[in-house]
Amino acid sequence: MIRLRHSASSILLLLSLAAAVLVADGFNWQTSSDAMWAMNCDFRGNDVGSAQMRGEDCSRACDLKRDCSHFAWTRYNGGTCWFKNGRSVSQSSAIPNPDPGAVCGILRSLLIANGRDSFGMTPHDPFANARPYLPIFRFDDDAGGWCFPDDKEAQRDKVCNGRFDRRAPVYVHSKQCGQYTVYQYNLWYGWQKGCVNQLFGGGRHGDDNEYVQVWTLGPSGPVARVRYNQHNGYYFREPGRGAEMHGSRPVVYIGKIAHGAYHRGCTGGKFWQTLIPNRGTDFCVGGCAYWDDFRNSEDGNFVMDEGTLRKDPSPREIDCDAPNCTPGHNSWRSPKSAACFGLNH
Questions:
Q1: Where does a domain end: 79, 113, 147?
Q2: Are residues 183 and 257 in the same domain?
Q3: What is the value of pTM for the model shown?
Q4: Is 123 part of a structural domain of the chain?
Q5: Which terminal Cβ of the chain has fewer Cβ within 10 Å, N or C?
Q6: Ranges of H-type helices in the chain
Q7: How far apart are CA 232 and CA 327, in angstroms?
Q8: pLDDT (tens digit, 9 = 90+) per residue, 144-177?
């Protein structure tokens, strides 16, 4: 967050954290917890909105806005933050602004995603260890009209986010379990619609937290196994034995209705096939049973491969001694017990 204080002669920028200063193109660039910023500068065009606010709130507001990558603040209209978008922006894109107190900045998340800014300064990444294992989330090609991940800190509980964002927040929590480092990634949904249809039927609820765990051999070692959660059910897969991987990143298929995480997608089937013992449970016919949620991602309409990592403010405790799957009898009708059955598929 940028701190601004008015004085008789000027507006001073104060940092709550120790700041690094970089002089380039005539601007003194400094880093705060969420942005790299400088005084008396601006960025041309690419505006995606504006809002009246204090200068010290501008960078945080940009960070919370899905399509904002950089920003500018001026004293216009009592103080205005101008939200801007552009993946290739850098410090060299800034231009002078003679307006006293003007500020411009770039989100650190963008600088980190780009790996290194144009002057060779690499910002500190608090998620450096977790980032290489960030799952690639694939949603059903027809998931539009249902609910996508949202910002759990934005107080939108019981609100269905119908807008897909490949950079949506992914909340991370980690724990050391013996030889394993466990990275737990959480997608939060404000609302889960009914399992029979979008308005009625069981399963409707808010505050929907869904998890994927990646177990690695040490903080930066190879992936040993991946845990896929579906509400209270879960199961593990290993790379080469069911877990689809893209380098060090698991590919995770998300159920359209209940948002559960699975190791593979499916293209649909017939309802009667789900009644065949030990056979039909991997078909996704769109019902409420454990394995039949839609997760057809063949066309790749909704692939979340640039999730924005954030610290989980209310993480679920990681159980180092959890069994390989949710214990119980092998019934496809029970979300809690079907995980062990699914482990064999």
A1: 113
A2: yes
A3: 0.63
A4: no
A5: C
A6: 58-64, 108-113, 338-342
A7: 11
A8: 888 999 999 888 999 999 999 999 999 999 999 9
SS3 3: strand
Query: Could you tell me if residue 29 is left (phi over 0), alpha (psi between -120 and 50 degrees) or otherwise beta?
Result: beta
The Cα angle at residue 36 between residues 34 and 38, in degrees rounded to 5? 130
- Residue 118 belongs to some domain of the structure: no
Q: Look at the chain and report how many structural domains it folds into.
A: 2
CA separation for the pair 124, 108 (Å, rounded):
9
Tokens at residue 341, please?
């059955």
Q: 235: domain range?
A: 131-342
192 and 298 share a domain? yes
Contact 310, 172 (CB under 8 A): yes
Stretches where the chain sits below pLDDT 50 are 3-24, 116-121, 198-199, 278-282, 328-338, 342-345
Assign residue 36 the CATH number of its domain. Answer: 3.50.4.10
Q: How far apart are CA 16 and CA 31, in angstroms?
A: 11
Q: How far apart are CA 224 and CA 210, in angstroms?
A: 21
Q: Which of 69, 87, 113 represents a domain boundary (last residue)? A: 113
Q: Which residues pair with 5 in a beta bridge?
A: 12
Task: Measure the CA–CA gap between 306 and 320, rounded to whole angstroms.
Answer: 28
Phi, psi of 35 (to 5 degrees): -155, 160
**Pair type for strands 249-254 and 136-139:** parallel
Q: What DSSP string describes 178-240?
A: TTEEEEEEEEEEEEE--SSSSSSSTT-EEEEEEEEEEEEESTTS-EEEEEEEETTEEEEEEET
State how far the Cα of 270 lies from the Cα of 285, in Å rounded to an integer: 6
Three-state secondary structure call for residue 274: helix
Tell me, yes or no, whether 159 and 64 share the same domain.
Answer: no
Domain contains 87? yes
Decide if 147 contacts 259 (C-beta within 8 A). yes
- For residues 316 and 209, the answer to whether their CB atoms sit within 8 Å is yes
